[in-house]
Amino acid sequence: MFRTVAELVEIAEKEDILISEVMIRQEMDVKNKTREEVFAEMERNLQVMEKAIEDSLKGVQSVTGLTGGDAVKIQAYMREKKPLSGHLMLDAVSKAMGTNEVNAAMGVICATPTAGSAGCVPGTLFAVKEQLNPTREQMIRYLFTAGAFGLVVANNAFISGAAGGCQAEVGSAGAMASAAIVEMAGGTPQQSADAFAMTLKNMLGLVCDPVAGLVEVPCVKRNAGGSALAIVSADMALAGVQSRIPCDEVIGAMYRIGQQMPSSLRETGEGGLADTPTGRFLKEKIFGMSV
Amino acid sequence: MKYNSVFDIIGPVMVGPSSSHTAGAARIGLTARRLFGKEPKWAKIHLYGSFAKTYQGHGTDFALVGGLLGYETDDTRMSKALDAANEKGIAIKFIEDSAKTDHPNTVRLIIGDDKESLEIVGISIGGGKIEITELNGFELRLSGNHPAILIMHNDRFGAIASVTKILAKHEINIGHMEVNRKDVGKEALMVIEVDQNVDDTILLELEEADHIIQISKIVS
C-alpha cells in the first residue's frame, strides 16, 4: 500500500502503469473485489456527478436563497460573449459551482473528498472532457487518480474544514483535480504530483469561515477558484514546470498550518467572512426567519 | 491508516450540504440505531465543537435523526427527518454542549425506549467518515465500515477465548479486535470487526458461551 505521493509515483513508474491503475489494484486488494466491481462502484459515483451538473444547469436555489443560479449565469455569458479566461476554464468553473449549488440546495452529490468541496473534481472533469474526448473508462480513471492523491492527504493530514480549514477541503479537492487532469491529458505520474503540489501550495492557509455556518458562502465560489487553479497547475506541470517543494512536504505543511489555525477559522462560523458585518447580518436574517 | 478505500475519498453519494456535518452525522445516527437494534422512542443529543456551533445550518440535526430513522446518506427524505420523527412520536432533544472534546465534530447520543437505553459518542472525521469512540461508558474505536460484533461480558479468564473459538469454528476472520473494561473483574466490552456479516445462529451460539452478558452486531 502507498502511504505517500512519492511511493504512489514510484509504484506507477516502476511497474509502468498509470496512477489510476495503482489505485484500482490497491482497491481490489484491500476490499477483495474484482476489477468489474470496483469500476461499477465508481461508475455510480460518476453518474451522480453528471446528474448534479445537469440539474445545476437547469438552475437551483438553496433554501436560504444565499446561493444558486450562478452556474446558469456563467453558461449564458459563455454563449453570448467571448470569455476572457477561455471557454474550458469558465466551463469548469460553472460546473464546479453548479455542483456546489446543488449541494447547498440539499440535492444529491458525491463527496470529493467532502461535500463542501464536491465541485472541483467533477467540474474540471466535465469541462476537460469537451476538449480531450476521453472514453468512459478514462473518465472513471480520472476519479481513481483524484482519489489516490486524496487518500494520501486524508491519511497524512486532513480533508475536513473543521479539522484543517478550507485548505484541507477545496485545497485538497483542487489539487486532486489537477493530478487527474494531468493523467487524462497524457502527462506522467510525476507531473501529476507536481500539479497537485502547485495547486495545494496556492491554497495553503485558506481558512474555513462559512457565513451563518452554512456550506454556501463562500464555499460555492471557492470551488470556482479551486477548479480554475487546478487547470492552471495542470497546464504548468504539463509544460514541464516542477514544484520546488516535493508534494509530500507540501501536504505536511498543510497539516501543520491546519493545526495552528484557531478554531474560529475552522468551520465554526465565528471568524473570517462569517464575522463581517454582512456575514453577521445574513446569519441573523436567516436564523431569525428560522430556516 | 484511517482511510483505506478510494471510496472514502470519492464518495459517499449523499444529500448535501456537508459531508462531515450531514453525511457523517447520518452515519453516526444509523450506527446508534443498529447498535440499539430497533427504532428508539426518544433521543437526547449532545453536540460539541463545530457540531454545536453550526448544526442548524449544516443540517446536522436532521441528519442525526435521519440516521436514527434508518436513512442512508443518500436518502432524499433526509431534510424532512425531523418532521418524520415528530409524526412517529419520537421525542428528540438537542443540547448544545460547551464541554471541550478531542475532536471538533463530536456528538453524544443517548437513545432509548420504555425498556432500555444506549449511549454512544461518535466523531465525524471528514468526508463522511466516522468513528464511534464510546459505547455505554466504554472507550472503543469503531469505524462502522466493517461488520462488527459487540459483546458485553464479565471480565473473567476464558471469556475471550470462548468467543474466538466459536468464530474460528465458523471460519470467521477477525480484522480488528479490542477489549475494554471499566474495572477488574467487572463488566467488559469486546469489539470484534470481521470481514463478513455474521449469521444470527452464530450470535445465538456466542450468547451461550461462558461469561457473556449481551451481544449486538453491526452489518456494514
Automatic annotation (TrEMBL), chain A:
Co-factor requirement: [4Fe-4S] cluster
Keywords linked to the UniProt accession: 4Fe-4S, Gluconeogenesis, Iron, Iron-sulfur, Lyase, Metal-binding
Family: Belongs to the iron-sulfur dependent L-serine dehydratase family.
Reaction equation(s) it catalyzes: L-serine = pyruvate + NH4(+)
GO biological process entries: gluconeogenesis
One Pfam entry name: SDH_alpha
Protein name: L-serine dehydratase
Root EC class: lyase
Associated pathway: Carbohydrate biosynthesis; gluconeogenesis
Serine dehydratase-like alpha subunit domain boundaries: 16-274
Enzyme Commission number: 4.3.1.17
Record-linked PANTHER family: L-SERINE DEHYDRATASE, L-SERINE DEHYDRATASE 1
InterPro entries the record matches: Fe-S_L-Ser, Ser_deHydtase-like_asu, Ser_deHydtase_asu
A single GO molecular function term of this UniProt record: L-serine ammonia-lyase activity
From TrEMBL, chain B:
Keywords, ordered alphabetically: 4Fe-4S, Gluconeogenesis, Iron, Iron-sulfur, Lyase, Metal-binding
Annotated catalysed reactions: L-serine = pyruvate + NH4(+)
Regions crossing the membrane: none
Stored PROSITE patterns: ACT
Listed pathway(s): Carbohydrate biosynthesis; gluconeogenesis
Cofactor: [4Fe-4S] cluster
Family of this protein: Belongs to the iron-sulfur dependent L-serine dehydratase family.
Name of the encoding gene: sdaAB
An annotated GO BP: gluconeogenesis
GO MF terms, alphabetically ordered: 4 iron, 4 sulfur cluster binding; L-serine ammonia-lyase activity; metal ion binding
Matches recorded under CDD domains: ACT_LSD
SUPFAM superfamilies attached to this UniProt entry: ACT-like (SSF55021), Serine metabolism enzymes domain (SSF143548)
Chain ranges of the ACT domain: 148-220
Keyword Metal-binding: yes
Protein name, per record: L-serine deaminase
